[in-house]
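Changelog entry

Holo records now carry the ligand SMILES as an explicit input line rather than a separate metadata file. Below, a converted record for NAP, shown in the new format.
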Amino acid sequence: MDKPKVGMVIGASGVTGTPLAEQLAHAGWKIYGVSRRAPQLRGGPFAQFHHVAVDLTDGAATHRALAACADVTHLFHCANDAQADTRLKMIGNTLDAIEAVAPNFANINLLQGTKYYGSYLGPFKTPAKETDPRIPGGDFYYSEEDLVTGRQQGKRWTWTGVRPQAVCGYAAGNPVNLATVLAIYGSIVRELGQPFGFPSTEACFNALIQVVDAELLARGAIYVSTTPECGNRAFNVGNGDMFRWKYMWPALARYFGLELAGPQAYSLREFLSDKQPLWESMTRKYGLKAFPFERTPEWAQGAFSPPNSRLGCEYDFISDTIRVRQAGFAECLDSEQMFLGMFDRFRAEKLIP
Ligand SMILES: NC(=O)c1ccc[n+]([C@@H]2O[C@H](COP(=O)([O-])OP(=O)(O)OC[C@H]3O[C@@H](n4cnc5c(N)ncnc54)[C@H](OP(=O)(O)O)[C@@H]3O)[C@@H](O)[C@H]2O)c1
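Structure line, unchanged by the conversion:
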């Protein structure tokens, strides 16, 4: 009989960590969820889910908090921070603590991203492949991967990585992502009685882009973490399709019942930056759930140089997902259906009117 699998989700209250914990729960795993704030799992509470509250930048506190988790077999590292050294410290502290207490520790999965290929710096080789050489001026992901691969040498445990494109979903603790921000943008445009303009340039409207549903990503991470042949490798994971906003935009306009309009002179950040009072009044008017709207303008811009942004770039933003499919994870999702399905969910959960 297989040994029971016990997952530990580092960053369990995040946009990638919360669905990971949910998907592990649905698959019957025992789960430890690590974060400072307790996550709210959809469909929960789950009896086999245990929240461990700790600040992972504090090595001694991490040791103490994780000492009771000796049965962990699989780590899913989904913590996030804007500072590269903080991110690295969280991974190091977690591995120190788990290697010390968990004899059946089998794999650590790193939640990486398309930034691995320098996607936010400007045009990059597309579709990006896992085997592409690292790019000059590279990214925080390299030092994290190097830390883990260095520690893995000569050990029984393996590492895996998943590299999603833009992640879409909803986590109560960290709800700011492309799907929620687009839903809020559409709702505001409707409230203002304006046409559904695309808040970026013509080139951005026309370029290829990919996104991934956070739940599909979670199942991909679980698959590669538990498939021995995937050990010590990283995998691009996405919905499996690619699209241009130019052809996606009409479907979104229809969803919000709005007249379609093309590229606009304003960016998504510029549009959102003076709308907080309006969103607060809409929250009261429609009885909406609280949302950290103040974070949305800067989130929309991210680390990209305008006119590029998290909404999209003037260059193709795509990665190749053949490796994960050949490894046996073949799930795919139509991105238009994903957006519309998520917007329905956001309405049902009173995130948008
Ligand atoms: N979101 C995307 O579109 C996207 C796309 C591609 C790749 N990625 C990558 O995916 C990974 C995860 O990102 P995410 O977007 O899921 O992050 P997120 O939503 O910002 O969540 C971050 C998580 O880390 C936890 N955390 C942060 N600092 C902590 C600390 N000091 N101690 C304990 N927990 C801490 C947070 O919990 P508390 O605040 O409650 O402690 C939260 O659970 C990152 O490597 C990111 O680069 C994200």
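Spot-checked after migration. The first strand starts at residue 6 and ends at 10. The pocket of NAP is lined by residues 11-17, 35-37, 55-57, 78-81, 111, 113, 164, 166-167, 173-174, 177 (CB under 6 Å).
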